[in-house]
Automatic annotation (TrEMBL):
It holds the Pfam family Peptidase_S11. The keyword Flavoprotein does not apply. Belongs to the peptidase S11 family. One of its GO terms (biological process) is regulation of cell shape. The keyword Cell division does not apply. Residues 1-21 form the signal peptide. Residues 21-244 form the Peptidase S11 D-alanyl-D-alanine carboxypeptidase A N-terminal domain. It comes from Acrocarpospora corrugata. Keywords: Cell shape, Cell wall biogenesis/degradation, Hydrolase, Peptidoglycan synthesis, Signal. GO terms for molecular function: serine-type D-Ala-D-Ala carboxypeptidase activity. SUPFAM superfamilies: beta-lactamase/transpeptidase-like. It comes from the Bacteria. This is Peptidase S11 D-alanyl-D-alanine carboxypeptidase A N-terminal domain-containing protein.
């Protein structure tokens, strides 16, 4: 019998009627963090300040910056370079076509639902202007939010030397991003058709209280998920980083949410 379970049994028999907190569940992700943002309680932390790559969770910051730089009705022309960039790097795409003109609102759906690197490239080039300047804005926003263990090198999360964040920082970013009603609406959307494109959310955890936020994967980062859920008037936000499979990414997030929700019953 594990030591935590043995102690719980001893307390129950020694002090009948005493509530004993359940032991924290095992999670196989390299990094995991979960907090109840309503009460401020941190329910789970595993290597929460370890600097690791976060793959396409990077696009949450891209969206956060865009909401401060652009109007939703701005029109952006998609270039051949935007399409080539995503294709050449084997990235996920929004299916954008060179020469078409799309609003910033549409590109945010492509960015956050499909996780399109073509969308992130187009937005960065327009609102940097240029990717280098846009990344500087991302890092300035990170400093402004107190993300002291986060550094961005590109707007999409593709593998790059010097790109990293932490579970705690990504949860702080999620909290800031979800305060934006546009990002919050997009994050909970399962699919949306705009201008002959149908964008589909890659987050399979949506529903039953889960309202966001973003998936990510690269070989270096493993399977990542930034997740947000509302249950019994409490809002829970957390991340799993470096999971070994897509299924485990969702299973670990669900395990953490079930554990935290149970603590508030």
């Amino acid at each position: 019998m594990r030591l935590g379970a043995l102690i719980a049994l001893i307390l129950i028999f020694a002090f009948p009627g005493t509530a004993v907190a359940a032991p924290a569940p095992p999670v196989t992700a390299r990094v995991a963090f979960l907090m109840d943002t309503t009460s401020g309680t941190v329910h789970y932390a595993k290597h929460a300040t370890r600097r690791v790559p976060v793959a396409s969770l990077t696009k949450v910051m891209t969206a956060y910056v865009i909401r401060r730089e652009a109007r939703l009705d701005d029109v952006v022309k998609i270039t051949a370079a935007d399409v080539r960039y995503a294709a050449a790097n084997g990235a996920t795409v929004g299916g954008l076509r060179a020469g078409e003109r799309l609003t910033v609102r549409a590109l945010l759906y492509a960015l956050l639902l499909n996780s399109g690197a073509d969308a992130s490239h187009a937005l960065a080039e327009r609102y940097g202007p240029g990717t280098h300047r846009f990344v500087a804005k991302m890092n300035a926003a990170a400093r402004g939010l107190g993300l002291d263990d986060t550094n961005y090198v590109n707007p999409d999360g593709l593998p790059a030397r010097g790109a990293y964040s932490t579970g705690r920082d990504q949860t702080t970013l999620a909290r800031a991003a979800m305060r934006d009603p546009v990002i919050a609406t997009i994050a909970r959307t399962k699919s949306r058709t705009i201008a002959h494109h149908t964008f589909r959310n890659t987050n399979e955890l949506l529903g039953k209280g889960v309202i966001g936020l973003k998936t990510g994967y690269t070989n270096a980062a493993g399977y990542c998920l930034s997740f947000v859920a509302v249950k019994y008037d409490h809002t829970y936000m957390g991340v799993v980083l470096g999971e070994t499979t897509e299924a485990r990414r969702y299973a670990s997030a669900r395990t953490l949410l079930d554990y935290a929700i149970d603590q508030n019953r």
